[in-house]
Specification:
Layout: E1 10-11, H1 14-37, E2 43-44, H2 46-54, E3 65-70, H3 71-81, E4 89-92, E5 105-109, E6 113-116, E7 129-137, H4 142-167, H5 170-175, H6 180-195, H7 201-212, E8 220-222, E9 233-234, E10 242-246, E11 249-253, H8 257-265, E12 281-286
Parallel strand pairs: 3-7
Antiparallel strand pairs: 1-12, 2-3, 4-5, 5-7, 6-12, 7-8, 8-9, 10-11
Helix pairs in contact: 2-8, 4-6, 4-7
Length: 287
C-alpha cells in the first residue's frame, strides 16, 4: 500500500508509479474480459498505444492508461455491460446512470484512491482509472469537420470551465497563481464557468457527448472530442485491431499501429530527455 496525507501535493515516486502501472494492467484484463465476452472492440490509445509499440508496456514515466472503443461498442459497454464488472469497479460516463467525471468514460477502481488536483472535492470516487474514448464516424467534408471541431472545442472549454468553477479547488487556484499567464487562464476560466453555470457540469458533459456522436456509419472516424486534429482518419487504420505486447500481456492496438503513431506523435520513436518528461503530482494516493 502507498498512501499520502490529503491536502499535500505529492510527486508520484517511481515505486508508486510502478504500483499504479501494475494495477492498471489488472484493470485492463478485467475490462477486456467483459468486452471479449460480448464482442466489443477495445484497443490501446494515445500514450498507451505508443508504450505498447515502443516499450512493449508503459512509457516508463507514465502512470495512466487510455483505450479506444467504436462508439456503438462504447455505448453498449456503459449502458448494458458495466454491471458485469467486479463490484470494485464503476464506470462514470456522460449519459450514463453513474454520471460523468469527464467528457468521456472512466473505469474507476473504488478500492483505490488517486486524488488529483481539481478532484479533491469531487462527489464521486477518485480512484485509479482507465480512460475510455469513443471513436465516432465523420464525413470527408472538410468544412463540416472544421465547424464540428470548433463547436466541440467550445463545448469542451465551457464544460471544463464550469467544472473548475463548481469544484473551486484551493490547491488548483494556488498552483495557477504562480505566474501571470497561469493566473489569467485561471480567472478567465473561472469567470467563463460562472457565466455558464446555469447548466451544471454533468449537463455540459452530456451536451459534448451528444454533439460529438454520429449515428451514421462511414469509412472515416476520429476522436471528435480531441482538440487538435482537423481531418478524417481512414477506418482501416484502426479496425480490426491487432494483438500487441504490453507488460507481458496481450493487448489490442490499432490495425496499422505505426501509421497511427506517426499521425498522433510525429517522430514516435524519439524519447524525450528526462527534464522534458511529464511528472505527476497527486493529493492522495492509495493502492
Amino acid at each position: 500500500m502507498c498512501k499520502k496525507s490529503s491536502g499535500i501535493l505529492h510527486k508520484v515516486t517511481p515505486e508508486e508509479r510502478r504500483k499504479i502501472q501494475l494495477h492498471l494492467c489488472k484493470m485492463y484484463k478485467d475490462l477486456e474480459q467483459v468486452c471479449d465476452r460480448h464482442g466489443l472492440t477495445i484497443m490501446m490509445a494515445f500514450g498507451s498505444a505508443l508504450g505498447a509499440v515502443r516499450h512493449k508496456g508503459f512509457i516508463p514515466w507514465d502512470d495512466d492508461m487510455d483505450v479506444f472503443m467504436p462508439r456503438a461498442d462504447y455505448t453498449r459497454l456503459i449502458t448494458q455491460h458495466a454491471d458485469e464488472l467486479s463490484d470494485n469497479y464503476i464506470i462514470y460516463a456522460p449519459n450514463s446512470k453513474n454520471g460523468a467525471i469527464a467528457r468521456f468514460a472512466k473505469l474507476v477502481d473504488k478500492n483505490t484512491l488517486f486524488v488529483e488536483v481539481g478532484s479533491e472535492k469531487i462527489d464521486r470516487h477518485p480512484g485509479v482509472f482507465i480512460d475510455i474514448f469513443p471513436l465516432d464516424s465523420i464525413t470527408t467534408n472538410q468544412l463540416s469537420n472544421k465547424v464540428k471541431k470548433m463547436v466541440s472545442m467550445a463545448l469542451i472549454f465551457t464544460a471544463a470551465s464550469v467544472r473548475q468553477y463548481e469544484l473551486n479547488s484551493d490547491v488548483y487556484k494556488s498552483i495557477m497563481s504562480g505566474c501571470r499567464a497561469a493566473k489569467f487562464n485561471y480567472w478567465f476560466r473561472q469567470i467563463h464557468g460562472f457565466l455558464f453555470s446555469f447548466i451544471n457540469e454533468q449537463q455540459w458533459y452530456k451536451l459534448v457527448d451528444k454533439f460529438c456522436e454520429n449515428p451514421n456509419d462511414s469509412n472515416y472516424i476520429d476522436f471528435v472530442q480531441s482538440d487538435y486534429r482537423w481531418k478524417p482518419l481512414d477506418i482501416n487504420m484502426f479496425y480490426p485491431p491487432v494483438k500487441g505486447q504490453f507488460e507481458g500481456m496481450e493487448v489490442y492496438i490499432p490495425h496499422h499501429p505505426i501509421d497511427y503513431l506517426k499521425m498522433e506523435f510525429g517522430n514516435w520513436q524519439w524519447i524525450p530527455p528526462e527534464e522534458e518528461r511529464f511528472e505527476h503530482y497527486v493529493i492522495d494516493l492509495k493502492i
